[in-house]
Design brief:
The protein is built from five helices and five strands, in the order ααααβββββα. The protein is an alpha+beta fold.
Length: about 140
């Protein structure tokens, strides 16, 4: 999936007259594989720890570009905007409020919902709670 997503983003950048530089590519690959909600600064710090030479501005621009393309979603957690990469397939999220881990759920539990007098065209559904690992730490 990672290579497919990098290719799609690279094509979209090209359409906007931008190119996929090596730092952008490495930052994008990291973000695609990241399974925790992160601020752009946290993404920058984590990417930098891996030895990737990327600027903080590049990370912010990448996140903004992905938001414009509907390939990232933001959540306000404790007053701070955090982001997760979202593949372009219909899915939902399980979000741990302790460790900020995010799991994608591709099996939609409400795909055939019917509401009298309303024609549903799309929906968003995310679940917030405590993941199994964090529950074990509590006890």
């Amino acid at each position: 999936m990672k290579d497919e997503m990098v290719g799609m983003v690279s094509e979209k950048l090209h359409q906007k007259g931008m190119r996929m530089t090596e730092p952008r590519k490495e930052a994008l690959e990291f973000f695609i594989l990241e399974h925790h909600l992160r601020t752009p600064k946290e993404l920058f710090d984590e990417i930098s720890k891996k030895g990737v030479k990327v600027g903080l501005t590049t990370v912010y621009r990448m996140v903004n570009f992905l938001m414009e393309m509907n390939l990232a979603r933001s959540y306000s957690i404790e007053g701070e905007l955090r982001y997760i990469f979202c593949p372009p397939y219909h899915h939902h999220h399980l979000i741990c409020l302790k460790c900020l881990k995010v799991e994608d759920v591709f099996d939609c539990p409400v795909k055939n919902v019917k509401i009298e007098g309303f024609k549903v065209q799309s929906h968003q559904l995310d679940f917030f709670g405590i993941c199994e690992d964090c529950q074990k730490l509590k006890g």
